[in-house]
Design goal:
Strand order of the largest sheet: 1-2
Order of helices and strands: EHE
Structural class: alpha+beta
Shape: globular
């Protein structure tokens, strides 16, 4: 599964971590380029 998460705050980070552990292909988009 391919997933795009908008926002790397607390919620976005935890969703990305959970879904990547389930084997999903994650892309996170955030205003801060250093994240």
């Amino acid at each position: 599964m391919k997933v795009i998460i908008c926002g790397a705050g607390q919620v976005g980070f935890n969703i990305a971590r959970y879904l990547s552990g389930e084997g999903a292909d994650i892309t996170v988009v955030d205003r801060n380029p250093e994240l």
